[in-house]
Description:
Elements: E1 2-7, E2 10-13, E3 18-26, E4 33-39, E5 46-51, E6 58-60, E7 68-73, E8 78-83, E9 92-99, E10 111-112, E11 116-121
Parallel strand pairs: 2-11
Antiparallel strand pairs: 1-3, 3-8, 4-5, 4-9, 5-6, 7-8, 9-10, 9-11
Amino acid sequence: QVQLVESGGGTEQAGGSLRLSCQASGDTFSLYFMAWFRQAPGKEREFVVVISPSGSRTSYAISVKGRFTCSRDNAKNTVYLQMNTLKPDDTAVYYCAASRLYGGSPQGYRYWGQGTQVTVSS
């Protein structure tokens, strides 16, 4: 089992930056693909990025590519999401998730954090 706790959300103006963190505990963190998803009010949960267990590979949603950067520190059991050039459309609850398998669908992830709110004002 893996327990995940996100932090770092908040309110930022358009064009600003925020950094989210997701602290993992439980099973061996370095065995897991880690992903960030987000869910805006009234919308389905959508994929943001997935990072490989070693951190050497990432895959981003088109909507965030070039603005968001995902990284991980396996020694600290933590995955990060650096969000730059924020847009009002980035407003959502952001969730980190863990899976032993690669994927971009929420259904493929067994372990989830509680989410952290990101609000971008125009």
